[in-house]
Specification:
globular, binds adenosine monophosphate, two-stranded parallel sheet, Tyrosyl-Transfer RNA Synthetase, Rossmann fold
Length: about 350
C-alpha cells in the first residue's frame, strides 16, 4: 500500500487554442476531481517550447499561457481551491527533470509513440527537448509526489514512463516508496475525441483544418457550421453498440453527445436509434452551444484583465513551490548533491 496522500496534478500546453478534446478528455475531469482531492493544475509553458508554434514566438507563448489559464478557470477550475500556476515559475520542475534525465533510459524514450508521431521521418531535426518531453512531464508530477493524473487516453504511455522513472529512482536510491506510482485518471465517454473530418484521427490542435475541431473559443455559428459539416456515413444511426462497428464518425459524434450531456452512451444510442444524422446533428448543435458558449464568454471576460491572471499564476506558483521545495531537497540529499 502506498503511504502517499491523494494529490492530483495535471497540465496542458499553451499552444494554439484548446479544443473539445482537451475539454472532454481532461478539463471536465479536472473540475470534477476537485471535489475529491487537493489538486494542482499547471500550464506547461516549458513543454510548449518543444513546439514550432511556440519556440521563437515569445508573444504567443505569453498570450497563450494566459488564454489557457482563462480556459481552466472558465471551465470550472477554481483557483481558490486548486493550485493554478505556470510550470516555468516553479524552478523545481526543471531541476528534477534533469535528475530524471539521468534516471530514464534511452530505450524507454525510444519507445514513445507520441515522439515518433510528432517527428515522422525527420527525427534528426527534432529538438532534444521534444525527445525528453516525457521526462519533464514525470518531474511535473513527481515533484509534488502526486498520486492521480487526469488526462486523455493519448497520455497513457507517458504516465507509464513516469511510473517507471519513479520505480527506478526508488530502487536505485534504496528509498522504497519515496515517490508514488501515480495513477492515470482516464474517464468519461470522450477520452479520445476524434477529428470531425476523419473519425480515425485524433482531434488535435495542430490539424490544418479548423473544421476538424471545435475550439473552446468558437462562437455559436461556428460550432453549428462545424457540426453540420462533420463527416458522417450514409446510414441512419444504429440501434445498439454493435451497429457502431466500422462507423468511427458515428461513434465519435455519439461519444461527444454522451460526454457533453453527461448521459450513458447506450442511452444516447437508444434516443437516436434509426434517426438521420441531420436530426441528430441539430440536437448536438444545441447541446454543444449550450455547454461551450458560456465557457468562451467567461474566457473573454477573464482575458480582459491579464494582470489579474498573472496574479493568480504567481500566487499559485508560490504555493506550488512550497510543496516542491522539500521534495527536491530530499531528492538531492538521497543522490548526494550538497546544499
Ligand atoms: P495537449 O493539447 O496535448 O496539451 O493535451 C492536453 C490534455 O488534453 C491532455 O490530457 C490530453 O490527453 C487531452 N487531449 C488532447 N487531445 C485530446 C483528444 N482529442 N481527446 C481527448 N483528450 C485529448
Ligand atoms: N504531455 C501532456 C500533453 O501533451 C501535458 C503535460 C505536461 C502533462 N506535464 C504534465 C499532463 C503533467 C499531465 C501531467 O497533454
Amino acid at each position: 500500500m502506498s503511504s502517499h496522500p491523494h494529490l492530483v496534478l495535471s497540465g496542458m500546453q499553451p499552444t494554439n487554442t484548446l479544443h473539445l478534446g482537451n475539454y472532454l478528455g481532461a478539463l471536465k475531469n479536472w473540475v470534477k476531481i476537485q471535489d475529491e482531492m487537493p489538486c494542482l493544475y499547471c500550464v506547461v509553458d516549458m513543454h510548449a517550447l518543444t513546439q514550432d508554434s511556440a519556440y521563437g514566438h515569445p508573444k504567443e507563448v505569453a498570450q497563450s499561457t494566459r488564454e489557457v489559464t482563462a480556459a481552466y478557470i472558465a471551465s470550472g477550475v477554481d483557483p481558490t481551491r486548486s493550485t493554478l500556476f505556470n510550470q516555468s515559475q516553479v524552478h523545481q520542475h526543471a531541476e528534477l527533470a534533469w535528475i530524471f534525465n539521468c534516471v530514464a533510459r534511452l530505450g524507454w524514450l525510444d519507445r514513445m509513440t507520441q515522439f515518433k508521431e510528432k517527428t515522422g521521418k525527420h527525427k534528426e531535426r527534432a529538438s532534444v527537448g521534444l525527445y525528453t518531453y516525457p521526462v519533464l512531464m514525470a518531474a511535473d508530477i513527481l515533484v509534488y509526489r502526486a498520486t492521480h493524473v487526469p488526462v486523455g487516453e493519448d497520455q497513457r504511455q507517458h504516465l507509464e514512463l513516469t511510473r517507471d522513472i519513479s520505480q527506478k529512482f526508488n530502487n536505485d536510491f534504496d528509498a522504497p516508496d519515496f515517490f508514488p506510482l501515480p495513477e492515470p485518471v482516464i474517464t468519461g465517454h470522450a477520452t479520445r475525441v476524434m477529428s470531425l473530418r476523419d473519425g480515425t484521427k485524433k482531434m488535435s490542435k495542430t490539424d490544418e483544418s479548423d473544421y476538424s475541431r471545435i475550439n473552446l473559443v468558437d462562437d455559436a455559428d461556428t460550432i453549428a457550421q462545424k457540426i453540420r459539416k462533420a463527416k458522417t456515413d450514409p446510414n441512419p444511426l444504429p440501434d445498439g453498440e454493435k451497429g457502431l462497428e466500422g462507423r468511427p464518425e458515428a461513434e465519435n459524434l455519439l461519444n461527444i453527445f454522451a460526454a457533453l450531456a453527461e448521459t450513458p452512451r447506450d442511452a444516447v444510442i437508444a434516443r437516436f436509434a434509426g434517426q438521420t444524422f441531420s436530426v441528430f446533428k441539430n440536437e448536438l448543435v444545441d447541446l454543444a452551444v449550450e455547454k461551450l458558449t458560456p465557457i468562451a464568454a467567461e474566457m473573454t471576460r477573464l482575458l480582459a484583465d491579464p494582470a489579474e491572471i498573472d496574479r493568480i499564476l504567481k500566487r499559485g506558483a508560490e504555493a506550488a513551490s512550497e510543496l516542491a521545495a522539500p521534495v527536491l531537497k530530499d531528492v538531492k540529499q538521497l543522490i548526494g548533491l550538497i546544499g
